Amino acid sequence: MSKFTWFTGQRPALTQAQLTRRQALAETSCLNDGPLNEQRLVVLDLETSGLNMRRDQVLSIGAVVIDQGAIDLGQQFECTLLREGHQASASTLIHGIAPSEIANGEEPAEALLSFMEFVGDSPLLAFHAEFDQRMLARALKQSLGYRLQHAFFDVAEIAPLVCPKAKLPHAGLDDWTQHFGLQVQQRHHASADALVTAELALILFSKARQQRLDNLPALLQQLNSRRRQRAHSM
């Protein structure tokens, strides 16, 4: 590995090889207006040291791919990140990642480069996506000096949009999986949560198509309209 490093202030410090990989990351593009069942989408879940988006850290990343209208189990990503000095806290009881696992995790720049190479230029999906988006963006900026510009879609927003009769406007992932009778193998584990979120997304995309929301731009337009309506009613 090259001894040369690249700096922005004091951090991040990247080797020349890492910098080359960062420069080669796919550029984001406009949303594809093709049918939903022809899209490649990356479904993401993060486990973190806490819920403070300014202070806490990403501990693990789990992701699966929806491609051609199905979950492609051949395209999965799972990684625990090395966080020096990490200690057990209240959040450890939720995600179950022991400090020893964190101590043996992958160096953050390497982990995040690998993840963004996995993502490519695909849009991202998550449940309560704002949290994942902001945590991922901060991690990428701190470790890589990389600005996240990928489109993010929130499954928690899509669900009530296409299933208004469900009467679950502020429901969590457990509520929606129970509503549709999905089997959850493990909760608060990044890869398992990403998988069940992807299963839920496929159900919601099917309902969206029935409502003539058959591409991402159309879905985004309806989500934005719903946000404006809710803002005016507050």
From TrEMBL:
Give the superkingdom in one word. Answer: Bacteria
Pfam families hit by this protein: RNase_T
Q: Which GO terms describe its biological process?
A: DNA metabolic process
Gene Ontology molecular function, alphabetical: 3'-5' exonuclease activity; nucleic acid binding
Listed A to Z, the keywords are:
Exonuclease, Hydrolase, Nuclease
Tell me the ranges covered by the Exonuclease domain, including all copies: 40-210
| InterPro entries tied to this protein | Ribonucl_H, RNaseH-like_sf, RNaseH_sf
**Gene Ontology, cellular component aspect:** cytosol
Is this entry keyworded Cell inner membrane? no
> Cross-referenced PANTHER family, in alphabetical order?
DNA POLYMERASE III SUBUNIT EPSILON (PTHR30231), PROTEIN NEN2 (PTHR30231:SF4)
Its name, as the record gives it, is DNA polymerase-3 subunit epsilon
